[in-house]
């Protein structure tokens, strides 16, 4: 799909790319009452529930703002042609 979008809308610079729908991985931190130990080797970044909640999206299409502004309907049409049935998506500008 990324190749088709770039071929159609951004042939020279090829700036359109596709990312995952959920951007932050969820790591559960236990309370004292739960008495569970969790040992992590790496730095743990804390996110709010809103930042880790299911976004309702399976993938995100990132496009340059000028393409988004001028060809939003054509973008939706081409994405719907190539996406698998039932997959949810959003288009965001870069």
TrEMBL record:
Domain of life of the source: Bacteria
Query: What protein name does the entry list?
Result: Uncharacterized protein
